[in-house]
Every structure is written in structure tokens, then in C-alpha cells.
């Protein structure tokens, strides 16, 4: 009897261990199944999620606008007052700019120079998709020159508006950066801006 006692105790302990292990495994499986059955909480759909990046579900875009090379080369002729902050762009100029986007359901967000914006496809919460480089105001026309983030970065867009007739005159896109109006004019003469790429700005 004494010889079998340790064997019986060992078997009992082994069986108890198997039972405890079985209960643990069953609980873990049950937990996973329960998790699968629960609805997955929806990804927050804010202005910067892929489902709703801008304006209620569709990212607003500005089409490039073609013109003859002669017209394009001279779109920035004349004298402009240079603007460095988005809040200083004249309301009439901003209204033409904003209303030219499709879908046109509100103002287009532009970060100020140096501020964070969506410079890649890795979206940054709270950051706009575009950042102002500088703008120019003249009595009868204005332009807004800005960076566009996301795919095909870096991408720089130039939009020229007619203040008197309240319409968009020309939109071009380039991969190069211009630091001032003089450099923009040189880029236009070299043909650095494409204006038949469709909705790229």
C-alpha cells in the first residue's frame, strides 16, 4: 500500500494539471470566439481618414487648366503684392480658388508656410492636404502657389484667378519648387508646369 500511494498522488496531480490546463485552453478559445462575435468598433471617420479625407467623403481636387504656351508664359506678368500667410489672401481671391475645387462644398484648408500638412500618404490627424508657399495679389488678378501632399510628392501647384470676372484662369503643377515670383516666371518659360494632368492639385 505504501508503494502505490506516491503513484496515486502523482496520477491525481497529473490529472488535476491536465484539467486545469484544459480549462485554461477552453477559456482562451472562448475568449477569442467571444471577441470575434463582437462588432469591431468602426474606425473614426474624420476629415483625415481615408474614408472621408475632405468634404464629407470625397477628397476635393483642383483640375489643371490648359492654355497656349504664349498665354501660360505670361500669366504672372505685372506687379503683385506677395502674401505669405493664408489669412492675408484677399477674400475674393480665396472664394474663386475654393469654388474651383470638385466637390466644391466648402473652403479648402491651406496650412501656412512651415506648418505641418499631409506631405505623404501616411495621414497626419488634423493636418490639411495643402500648404501655402506664397500668394500674389494684383488689382485684376491673383495667384496662389502651394504644395500638395500625398502621392506624387513633392508636387507644387500654381493657380491664377481673374478677380474682375471672378473665375479661374489657369492651373499648373510642377515637381520643382520656386522660392519667389521671379523663379515661378522662369519655370513657366522653361515649361516646368504641366497643365493637362487633370485632377492633380
Order of helices and strands: HHEHEEEEEH
Mean pLDDT: 77
User: Which residues sit in consecutive blocks of at least 5 with pLDDT less than 50?
Assistant: 27-57
Indicate the percent of residues in helices.
25-40%
Largest sheet: 6 strands, mixed
Overall spatial form: globular
Write down the domain tally: 2
By DSSP, the count of extended strands is 6
Q: How much β-strand is present in the residues?
A: 15-25%
Structural class: alpha+beta
Number of helices: 4
Short synopsis of the structure:
This protein is an alpha+beta fold and 201 residues long.
Write the layout of secondary structure elements.
Blueprint: H1 4-37, H2 69-73, E1 81-83, H3 91-99, E2 110-111, E3 130-137, E4 141-148, E5 155-162, E6 167-174, H4 181-190
Parallel strand pairs: 2-3
Antiparallel strand pairs: 1-3, 3-4, 4-5, 5-6
Features:
single chain; about 200 residues; alpha+beta; 4 helices; 6 strands; globular
Amino acid at each position: 500500500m505504501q508503494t502505490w500511494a506516491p503513484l496515486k498522488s502523482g496520477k491525481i496531480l497529473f490529472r488535476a494539471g491536465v484539467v486545469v490546463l484544459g480549462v485554461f485552453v477552453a477559456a482562451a478559445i472562448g475568449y477569442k470566439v467571444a471577441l470575434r462575435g463582437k462588432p469591431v468598433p468602426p474606425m473614426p471617420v474624420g476629415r483625415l481618414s481615408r474614408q472621408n479625407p475632405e468634404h464629407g467623403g470625397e477628397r476635393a481636387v483642383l483640375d489643371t487648366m490648359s492654355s497656349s504656351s504664349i498665354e501660360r508664359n505670361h500669366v504672372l506678368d505685372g506687379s503683385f503684392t506677395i502674401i505669405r500667410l493664408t489669412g492675408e489672401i484677399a477674400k475674393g481671391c480665396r472664394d474663386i480658388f475654393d469654388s474651383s475645387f470638385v466637390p466644391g462644398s466648402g473652403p479648402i484648408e491651406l496650412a501656412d508656410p512651415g506648418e505641418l500638412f499631409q506631405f505623404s500618404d501616411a495621414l497626419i490627424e488634423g493636418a490639411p492636404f495643402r500648404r501655402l508657399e506664397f500668394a500674389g495679389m494684383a488689382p485684376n488678378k491673383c495667384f496662389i502657389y502651394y504644395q500638395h501632399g500625398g502621392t506624387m510628392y513633392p508636387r507644387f501647384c500654381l493657380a491664377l484667378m481673374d478677380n474682375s470676372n471672378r473665375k479661374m484662369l489657369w492651373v499648373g503643377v510642377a515637381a520643382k519648387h520656386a522660392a519667389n515670383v521671379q523663379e515661378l516666371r522662369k519655370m513657366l518659360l522653361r515649361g516646368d508646369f504641366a497643365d493637362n494632368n487633370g485632377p492633380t492639385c
